[in-house]
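Q: Convert this sequence to structure tokens.
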Amino acid sequence: MDVETGNIVIKTTIGDTIFETIDVTSGNVTGTGTTTITINPTGTLAEQVGYYVQIDATAFDDPSSNSYAGITDTTSWSFTTSDQTDPLVTLLSPLDDETSVLASTTLVMTFNEAVDVETGDVTIFKTNGDVLVDTIDITGGSVTGTGTNTITITPVGTLLSGIEYYVLIDATALDDAASNSYAGIASSTAWSFTIVSSGGSSFTPIYPTGITIEVTDVSVSCSGDNTTATVTISANDASEYLISNDKSLTEASWTRFAENPTSVTWEFADPTGWSTIYYMLKSSFGNSTGLQVANVDLGETPASCLDESTISEPEEDITVDLEPDVVEDIVTQGLSPYDGSLEDIVPVHDMELIVGENYPTVYLVQNGTRRPYTNETAFYSWHTSQDSILHVTNATLSSIPLGAPVLYKPGVVLVKIQSDARVFAIEVDADGNAKDVLRWVSTEDVARDIYGDAWAEYIIDIQPTEFARYSVGEKIEADYSVDTASMLKRSKIDSRYRELLGAMMSFFRQVGL
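A:
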């Protein structure tokens, strides 16, 4: 065919918009005198767009001057361009350089389009020394979300508090539907984060700090039916308080913490001697301290209130019992292990949650001991918030013998250790023994049948030292039922803690910090 005269017009299928008009005699059309004509548009066709081509009937002749009929309709030569753009990440969670990440976090990648898992690994390194801590096969059960725009990666290894990590992803790991590959992450600075420091095997609740209470100006009525005093409460970042003579706080209401310190005139339930008041504080971002206890010595009835006519000389030969009666909840004092100061040792009761004034570990009081929660995820496997935590003096804390740690709640999560690929369910020992029982979930298929396709999201890594605190039962192979509605995924436990962190960050933004 020979080039003659006329145009080649390229239009979009939708809207019949002219994309480009090409003169057949221009350099964009080659191959005259051959059986193959090549048309090279000047512009670049858009991806995933439908086009059609029309050609004038005068454009091409054969050597005998017979003309090519051309194309005048919209369907004879139509096509749709392919997707040739690699998928892009629009959001990473945790965020790059985030410093308040829980050890139980999952890694979530949100893309601008749906992606599929292919082959390759996700690797997690400790930033200091570039130490490899976890290798996750992209096709394994720890990676979910294929076919969607959200990929969730559940680390298998243990992420330690106070440590910075970074994530690398192979360029072969994820493709879109058109087989365009996600570029992956090859830099140690593209996705890094730091696990929130948890004070070793504990965590720090978020609440008003530096709490002190002082009682002054005690005024005892001569009628002996009431005593008033000025109660002064000091606390950092407190917005509200409530105070009561009753531990149940049924008559108490939240009052604005107008200034630091804040004073209130209070009428005590006991006219003289030792009296107990209960109070709580709420932080500026809405988190409550839990119940606080103050034991106050109101002294004896003043001599000015005594009627001299009622005073008589003591009789002779009176026998005095020098053995004191045993009175529960009498306040004693002891030295603070934090700074050596003399502090009240306040009464605590079985099944209360306590934390010291200067120590972050949360304890469960049980059978005369204080049992530490191993970490924040163990705490949140039992509790939904920190509202019930009672803050006690450091001397109170040290006066209670240390007991065995509180481990994860049976039936709520699955557990494993980093050096062992096996995953275990936790059960209460049927024979009533103190140790809970670990039962090995024998295969991934069994795990999927029992816990569903997202079974890996229930897995929590525990320290090897914790493993020894369980007994080991028979492995689970089949015919095992569990109520997954009562179980918690790592993301759920994570969200409980993040709610507190989010509230705190919102407050900091409001005050310009």
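Confidence is low (pLDDT under 50) at residues 198-204, 306-331.
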